[in-house]
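Box 3.1 A note on notation
Throughout this textbook, protein chains are presented in two layers. The first layer is the amino acid sequence; the second is a token string describing backbone geometry. Keep the layers aligned when reading.
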Amino acid sequence: QVQLVESGGGLVQAGDSLRLSCAASGRAVRYDVTVWFRQAPGKEREFVAAIRRSTGTTNYADSVKGRFTVSRDNAKNTVYLQMNSLKPEDTAVYYCAVGPYYNQINIWGQGTQVTVSS
């Protein structure tokens, strides 16, 4: 069964904004940490942002600090990634994932494509 569903990706121009959503169901709702990763063509997957449900604590990669904001709606079991001032180098497939710790991921979503044109 599908447990994490990302949505909100698309094609935008540099400087535009997008908001990604990650809706959890089933076992996925049990985990405390939600992490956003991204993978660009020919590059390794990289950490983008994370949020801990129990404390609200957030963490960001240096490359997105000040531009991206991660948040969650616990009632909807949904985590959001607000992406502002998008750059062409933000182009990637964005994945959300959940686990008990930042470095222990148990469930992955299918990914959503974000393309930023210059």
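The longest strand covers residues 92-99. The two ends are 38 Å apart (CA to CA).
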